[in-house]
UniProtKB/TrEMBL annotation:
Protein name as catalogued: AcrR family transcriptional regulator
Sequence ranges assigned to domain HTH tetR-type in this UniProt record: 28-87
Organism (species): Planomonospora venezuelensis
InterPro entries: Homeodomain-like_sf, HTH-type_TetR-like_transc_reg, HTH_TetR, Tet_transcr_reg_TetR-rel_C_sf, TetR_SbtR-like_C
One Pfam match: TetR_C_43
GO function terms (MF aspect): DNA-binding transcription factor activity; transcription cis-regulatory region binding
Start-end of DNA-binding region: 50-69
Compositionally skewed regions (Basic and acidic residues) per UniProt: 19-33
Keywords, alphabetical: DNA-binding, Transcription, Transcription regulation
Gene3D superfamilies the record matches: Tetracycline Repressor, domain 2
């Protein structure tokens, strides 16, 4: 495998060259629509769908897609990072509740997201992209959300007291592999079933 350091594609709206102003609101909306559409199409139709078809389905011109994402690889990475950021937002919302078992809700969503984006993650792995290096802030934010919910769950006695956040993150990563190995990444019901089995291992043992 090559040890190259891939050029990092843009992961967020960036100013026009020579202009420090934020992009227009419609440009941001278009980019978000492209990301949502691409994620859905990659999950349902695979990675072979052309950028121009993604543009058509998103209701934008081909130039809009190519301007934000000049290569498929850059779009894969942006979709994956967008999913992490959405999970961070979900974690923040769960942290604002008083549900002691909110950890399991977030971990279930993380596993579902991983199953839905399995093809994208595989493509990034093949291209030697590491999301933790490509988007360290987003990855760290997600780990912090998990850590906070884990601490709450531990104090409430709804999770094993001997589990650490790095172990939880490893379990989630392993769940992606388990779901894909079982061929369950194309079935939300089966992937959710496998996720529940895995998450049961985090619950306190009966006395």
């Amino acid at each position: 495998m090559s040890s190259r350091t891939p050029e990092r594609p843009s992961t967020g709206p960036s100013p026009t060259a020579g202009n420090d102003r934020e992009p227009r609101a419609d440009a941001r909306r278009n980019r978000e629509q492209v990301l949502r559409t691409a994620q859905q199409l990659f999950a349902t139709q695979g990675l072979g769908i052309p950028l121009d078809e993604i543009a058509r389905r998103a209701g934008v011109g081909p130039g809009t897609v190519h301007r934000h994402f000049p290569t498929k690889e850059s779009l894969y990475l942006a979709v994956a990072i967008d999913q992490i950021r959405r999970l961070v937002t979900e974690g923040e919302a769960l942290a604002g509740t008083d549900d002691p078992a909110a950890l399991f809700t977030l971990l279930s969503r993380m596993m579902a997201s991983g199953a839905e984006n399995a093809a994208v993650k595989s493509a990034l792995t093949a291209a030697e992209f590491d999301l933790r290096n490509a988007a360290p802030d987003a990855a760290a934010d997600l780990t912090r959300q998990v850590a906070g919910l884990l601490d709450r769950a531990r104090h409430a006695g709804v999770v094993r007291r001997d589990v650490a956040v790095d172990e939880v993150m490893a379990i989630v990563a392993g769940a992606f592999a388990a779901i894909r190995h079982a061929g369950a990444d194309i079935s939300r019901e089966r992937s959710a079933h496998i996720a529940r089995i895995i998450l049961d291992g985090l619950r306190p043992r009966p006395r």
